[in-house]
């Protein structure tokens, strides 16, 4: 694992450079072809070109999956020069590639490596692992799956992880890492390997200042909470898709008409009939606190809607019903209205079943009296936005806050 990349796009570049270095080390300089499905993020092709590879596009079928016949034809055509396949799972079309294992096997049989774009790990975490179905290297989007800020010019972190045979070629830095380092296997033995990867950013360790956000998120959620967040993200996307499918047809869906972490709404018929554009609908969704939708990608005239794991299904339901009645309520009536929607305490503290001896899922509490005293925290949390659209939200699951009276006593005892 390397934490040096400052963004998911740099993570892609790092992974492809590792694949390129691996082929060069094995004397296969001619392996420069990178297969990329037409459903991929645009950064995939850019990263492949920056890594010195040539992009060959693989078609998708009418359901949004990779076209296996076209994939096999492209592999056969470029068998001697195939370097890698880049695939996003779940795909950017918002579907799970059911044949992803077969796809990875076909690439490996031709001598290529598989890069799995981890941009959509928020629809997989806790249920499956990229390496299990054939991935060799991946980057993770901390801004989507692990809670750091999204967009705005950074800083960002796009850590890249690889299997052991590619690890020596992950990013290094001449001023912070020796040429030789140790790779410790699952059996506990350590082998000396030569590090052949160059830096992808100026700082040896990328942007570590924001990593405590992801660390705290993982500690508070615990293994069970992270899995529950994945389920909530997929549930929210399907809730939106089913609620809006009568007005906005879905462009792609998997078995039983279900989607993964996002859904693509086909607004082209609506635009032709009424003049309502993807921009109009996107602005309305943002007004209701949704993750900013992607306009006209991957298909022009469509809208990609992606509720994140932190979305409140109550907010989604209020948007679906199309009323703003709560906005005119007094503060007192709003509090009574929201009080009935709070999550039960047993569900809020899902991580509490894990022991208190440290590790993932342990309760966060001072380890000794030298730590700073807890600071008062508002019991009501306001979502960002215009004053007349602020919405009260419950605390995140597992975050336990002291009562205000206890905080006052604590502050009084700490006073000189």
Chain-wise SSE layout:
Blueprint: H1 8-25, E1 33-37, H2 42-50, E2 54-58, H3 68-77, E3 82-88, H4 100-109, E4 113-118, E5 137-140, H5 142-145, E6 160-162, E7 180-184, E8 190-194, H6 211-244, E9 263-266, H7 268-274, H8 278-287, E10 294-295, E11 302-305, H9 313-321, H10 331-339, H11 345-348, E12 381-382, E13 392-393, H12 404-414
Parallel strand pairs: 1-2, 1-3, 3-4, 4-5
Antiparallel strand pairs: 5-6, 7-8, 9-11, 10-11, 12-13
Helix pairs in contact: 1-2
Radius of gyration: 24 Å
Spatial order of the strands in the main sheet?
A: 2-1-3-4-5-6
Q: What is the CATH superfamily of the largest domain?
A: Type I PLP-dependent aspartate aminotransferase-like (Major domain)
Instruction: Return the string of H and E elements.
Output: HEHEHEHEEHEEEHEHHEEHHHEEH
What do these coordinates show?
This protein is α/β, with parallel strands linked by helices and 416 residues long. The chain folds into two domains: 8-207, Type I PLP-dependent aspartate aminotransferase-like (Major domain) (Aspartate Aminotransferase, domain 2), CATH 3.40.640.10; 211-342 and 377-395, Aspartate Aminotransferase, domain 1 (Alpha-Beta Complex). Helices cover 32% and strands 13% of the residues. It has twelve helices and 13 strands. The chain has helices at 8-25, 42-50, 68-77, 100-109, 142-145, 211-244, 268-274, 278-287, 313-321, 331-339, 345-348, 404-414; strands spanning 33-37, 54-58, 82-88, 113-118, 137-140, 160-162, 180-184, 190-194, 263-266, 294-295, 302-305, 381-382, 392-393. The chain has a six-stranded mixed beta sheet with strand order 2-1-3-4-5-6, sandwiched between helices. A three-stranded antiparallel beta sheet has the order 9-11-10. A two-stranded antiparallel ribbon has the order 7-8. α1 packs across α2. It starts with 7 loop residues before the first helix and ends with a helix. Mean pLDDT is 76; it is low at 309-316, 322-344, 346-395 and 399-408.
């Amino acid at each position: 694992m390397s934490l040096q990349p400052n963004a998911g796009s740099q993570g892609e570049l790092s992974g492809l450079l590792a694949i390129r270095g691996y082929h060069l080390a094995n004397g296969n300089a001619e392996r420069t072809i990178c297969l990329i499905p037409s459903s991929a993020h645009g950064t995939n092709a850019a990263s492949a070109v920056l890594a010195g590879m040539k992009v060959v596009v693989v078609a998708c079928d009418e359901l949004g999956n990779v076209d296996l016949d076209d994939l096999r034809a492209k592999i056969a055509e470029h068998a001697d020069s195939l370097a890698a396949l880049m695939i996003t799972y779940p795909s950017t079309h918002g579907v799970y590639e059911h044949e992803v294992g077969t796809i990875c096997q076909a690439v490996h049989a031709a001598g290529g490596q598989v890069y799995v774009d981890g941009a959509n790990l928020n629809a997989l975490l806790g249920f499956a692992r990229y390496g299990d179905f054939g991935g060799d290297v991946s980057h993770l989007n901390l801004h989507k799956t692990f809670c750091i800020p999204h967009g705005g010019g950074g800083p960002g972190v796009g850590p890249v992880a690889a299997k052991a045979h590619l690890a020596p070629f992950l990013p290094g830095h001449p001023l912070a890492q020796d040429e030789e380092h140790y790779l410790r296997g699952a059996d506990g033995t350590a082998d000396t390997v030569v590090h052949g990867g160059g830096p992808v950013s100026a700082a040896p360790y990328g942007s570590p200042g924001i990593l405590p956000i992801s660390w705290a998120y993982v500690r508070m959620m615990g293994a069970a909470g992270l899995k529950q967040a994945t389920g909530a993200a997929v549930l929210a996307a399907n809730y939106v898709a089913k609620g809006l499918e009568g007005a906005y047809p879905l462009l792609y869906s998997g078995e039983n008409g279900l989607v993964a972490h996002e859904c693509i709404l086909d607004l082209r018929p609506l635009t032709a009939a009424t003049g309502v554009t993807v921009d109009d609908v996107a602005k309305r969704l943002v007004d209701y606190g949704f993750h900013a939708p992607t306009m006209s990608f991957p298909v022009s005239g469509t809208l990609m809607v992606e509720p994140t794991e932190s979305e409140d299904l109550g907010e989604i339901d209020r948007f679906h019903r199309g009323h703003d009645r709560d906005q005119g309520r007094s503060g007192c009536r709003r509090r009574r209205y929201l009080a009935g929607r709070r999550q039960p305490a047993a569900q809020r503290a899902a991580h509490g079943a894990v022991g208190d001896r440290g590790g993932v899922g342990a309760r966060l509490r001072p380890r000794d009296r030298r730590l700073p005293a807890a600071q008062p925290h508002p019991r009501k949390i306001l979502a960002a936005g215009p004053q007349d659209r602020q919405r009260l939200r419950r605390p995140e699951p597992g975050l336990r806050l002291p009562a205000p009276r206890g905080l006052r006593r604590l502050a009084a005892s700490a006073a000189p």
